[in-house]
Amino acid sequence: MPTQIAATLGSRTAPALLARGLTKRYGSVLAVDRLDLAVRPGEVYGFLGPNGAGKTTTMRMLVGLIRPTAGSARVAGRDAGDPRGLAHVGAMVETPALYPYLSGRDNLAVLAGHGHVPRSRIGEVLDQVGLTDRAGDRFAGYSLGMKQRLGVGAALLKDPSVLILDEPTNGLDPAGIADMRVMVRRLGDEGRAVLLSSHQLGDVEQICDRVGVILHGRLVAEGTVDEIRGGAGLAVVATPDEMARARLTELLGAGAVSSEDGVIRLRVDPERAPEINRALVAAGIDVHELRRDERSLEEVFLAMSAGDRDEEERSHAA
Amino acid sequence: MPHSYTAEMTKLVKRPAVWVVFALWLTLMLSFSYVFPYVGYRSAGNAREAAGILARLLPSRLPGHAISGFPLWGGALIVVLGALCLGSEYGWGTVKTLLSFRPGRLTVYGSQIAALATAVAALVLAAFALSGLSSILIAGSAGASITGPGPLDLVQSMAAGWLVLFMWCLFGVCLAVLFRGPALAIGLGLVWVLAVENLIRAVAPLIGVLSTVEKVLPGAGATSLVAALGGGGAAVVGEGQALAVVALYLALFGTAGAAVWLRRDVQ
After folding, report:
1. pLDDT 10s digits, A43-83
2. Which of A16, A216, A292, B197 has a 20 to 30 Å separation from A113 between CA atoms?
3. Most A CBs within 10 Å, among B20, B89, B101, to test the A interface
4. What DSSP designation does A138 have?
5. pLDDT by residue (tens digit) across B216-231?
6. Among B residues 72-111, those touching chain A with beta carbons less than 8 Å apart
7. In this structure, are residues A276 and A266 in contact, taking their beta carbons and an 8 Å threshold?
8. Residues of A whose CB is below 8 A from B102
9. Using an 8 Å Cβ cutoff, are B139 and B145 in contact?
10. Subunit contact B4:A89, Cβ cutoff 8 A
11. Minimal Cα distance from A156: which residue of B?
12. Which residues of A touch B107 (CB under 8 A)?
């Protein structure tokens, strides 16, 4: 862990970013509802939710752009929005917003001035986000991906111990997305606390240590990626289907067996695959397919969103 | 604060729109204060009329003449400058970048105001330099003696010019912060400076209460201050009250803008 980051964050176990009961209400609309959140140094935390779920509102509260209606947040050891805390926070909230008439380098120079950052840092950051060659071009002439890179560069300018990145891969090409993935993971490995919102669930799955899912302003699920996915099981395609289901229910219990579109899903440790195969074959059942069954984060997320929509429709109908 | 001030100066100096406003402002100032009057002097029907016009254009009259246009069209363009500089921060979304970066809301606002104050001071200096040069050229071409103004008069006039322009600049800033963008701020600012105040002044003699209101309007204060220093326009109030009105509005616009900037959520 770099010395500066360690000094800023103190203990590795104490959260670098902590929200308690964070709430934001706009009139009758509850944008964020009693949100509890903790991100520790060295941790990359994926903040997931559909559009309008309250992710950006939460991030705005964490950097002091908007005041919470209730609850509190502390970032880098200070109340959210306190300049002494912001000195150690790098943030890109929503789209990167910089001065269109200034070059990439001048934009960073302006921010470096406001942030008391040595000018030597500008070259390092431009290099880090791969914009050195185009640093002299005006921001207005940048592609969406280049703007995104410069936005991330601006967030990194202070060499922050806490990073808040809202959809940093927006507009990036596949190579850019891969680079960003590696960079975010490395930032976490360096000891920084990273709060990352992204719709690229595959990326979140690969780089996040923990994930929180927010729906209608409420944190509805939180845990490691494996915990959120609900662990792995087995999928079986066998004939006769009914006989196979009966044998598996007898072997594993009714609660561990379910069937969907001709595929029998088993909630068991995948290590038991050989035992299950032997049992089915011994019962005269033909096993066509026996594989590890693991739901992706995307499947879980879509299921949560769909469940939430159904619930919402039911409450509207009622 | 010094770091933020330098950053804000970089933004102002590198922004083409600022230079456009400056160039337009100086062109208008030269045209209305020297070029058109000089053409009038050259084509005057009689020597007395010509002498009257020439007298206003000579270096000795520089302190009052150079700031004649500051309260009206000079102020209008400076409202645009103020509204553009703060309003664009909302338009581009850079207000959220700045406020989430580090310095604190008051430091950002203060450094922006300080940078604008510097820019207005530079504009006043440029206006006086160009006015001085123009008056010397006119005096030379007319064969008149080149007698400079007293240094105290010159400094007083520059300070008054800066005060008037900076007050209008903060009017633009305040509107931009209130309306979170430049467009409405510029529109309303121009309507106020160019139309509303003039309309009130036009009907003030007819309605008693408006003649009282007229005396505390920012434009009337600015015109009276400039008139007291020998500039054009009709004074509505005395020098002391004019100075107080302008200073009060300067503080009011600056404080109102700061209060909203500090308190309001940034969406």
Report:
1. 999 999 888 889 999 999 999 999 999 999 999 999 998 99
2. A16
3. B101
4. B
5. 999 999 999 999 988 8
6. 92-94, 96-104, 107-108, 111
7. yes
8. 83, 86-87, 114-116, 158
9. yes
10. no
11. B101
12. 83
Question: Is the full-model pTM beyond 0.90?
Answer: no
| Distances in whole angstroms, Cα of residue B146 to Cα of each of A200, B55, B57, B138, B142 | 75, 11, 11, 10, 10
The pLDDT, as a whole number, for residue A316 is 63
Q: What is the mean pLDDT of residues A235-254?
A: 92
pLDDT digits (tens, 9 = 90+) for A133-183: 999 999 999 998 899 999 999 999 999 999 999 999 888 888 888 888 999
Q: Which residues are paired to A164 by β-bridges? A: A91, A195
3-state secondary structure of A33: strand
Look up the ipTM and state it: 0.89
A315 pLDDT above the threshold of 80:
no
Coil vs helix vs strand at A63: coil
Tell me how close the Cα of A57 comes to any Cα of chain B, in angstroms.
9
- pLDDT at site A274: 93
**CA B66 from centroid of its chain's CA atoms:** 12
CA distance B167 to chain A (A): 26
Residue in chain B nearest A59 by alpha carbon: B100
Which DSSP category does A103 fall into? B
pLDDT value at B154 more than 60: yes
| Cα–Cα distance measured from residue B234 to residue B33, given in angstroms and rounded to the nearest whole number | 17
Would the CB atoms of A83 and B103 count as touching at under 8 Å? yes
A317 has pLDDT over 70: no
Minimal CA separation from A86 to chain B, in Å: 5
Euclidean distance between CA atoms A194 and A225, whole angstroms: 16
